[in-house]
Write a structure and sequence with these properties.
Elements (H helix, E strand, L loop, with lengths): L2 H11 L4 H17 L14 H10 L11 E5 L7 H11 L4 E5 L3 H14 L3 E4 L11 E7 L4 H11 E11 L3 H8 L3 E9 L7 E10 L1
Parallel strand pairs: 1-2, 1-4, 2-3, 4-5
Antiparallel strand pairs: 5-7, 6-7
Helix pairs in contact: 1-3, 2-4, 2-5, 6-7
Length: about 210
């Protein structure tokens, strides 16, 4: 999809202000510049950034619902979904806090630069999620980070009892669910991805080890 078409599709799917769109344009510019030296996204996906990465990330924002104070994103990498949802929150929920966990120091430096330039309420944690003290999150999200059974371990460690996990998963999500149920119990809702009909967003709550 051409860049202009992807950006237009984003505007059609998500009701955001000109200021938010300008912030996302600035994020795109930083991403393209830094990707010349750091592997933030695949070179093949650069031409399809808005559809493949921006829209894919933004679709989880409304699934978080209301009453969210602290949002934790695991393995943020090039900023997905963490920077995208934090940018949307700057307009829609300006008091919402975000913690973006990324163990790669160069990627963490990129995220700090973007957060500063976009003036986002974001804390970058350059560490592995399993080595961090509980973050007491209302929402924990992840995209292309780890198998579901491992993500559930992180969620159980860092979510508040009433919190929910939002995980973007590909076509093999059903197998991952069955494998996870061998060790975990949880309540699950599935939302078909708007960027890939075979993929889903899993919304999980009441996560407990069996």
């Amino acid at each position: 999809m051409r860049r202009e078409d992807g950006r237009q599709a984003f505007c059609e799917n998500f009701n955001v202000s000109r200021e938010t769109l300008a912030r996302l344009d600035a994020f795109e510019s930083h991403l393209r510049q830094w990707t010349k030296t750091i592997n933030l996204v695949s070179r093949q996906s650069l031409d399809d950034l808005w559809h493949r990465h921006f829209i894919d990330s933004a679709q989880i924002y409304d699934l978080a619902g209301t009453g969210v104070d602290h949002w934790v994103d695991i393995g943020t990498g090039g900023g997905f979904p963490g920077i995208v949802v934090a940018t949307m929150a700057a307009e829609k929920h300006p008091n919402r806090r975000f913690s973006l966990v990324e163990s790669n120091l160069r990627k963490a430096a990129f995220l700090r630069t973007v957060a500063r330039e976009l003036k986002l309420s974001v804390k970058i944690i350059a560490n592995r999620i399993e080595n961090i003290d509980p973050l007491d999150a209302d929402i924990i999200s992840a995209r292309a980070t780890a198998p579901l059974k491992l993500l559930l371990k992180y969620a159980a460690q860092h979510l508040r009892p009433s919190g929910r996990a939002l995980f973007l998963k590909g076509a093999s999500f059903r197998r991952e669910l069955w494998e996870a149920l061998e060790s975990w119990t949880f309540k699950s809702d599935e939302y078909t991805s708007i960027t890939d009909g075979a993929a889903v967003v899993l919304s999980l709550g009441d996560i407990r080890r069996v």
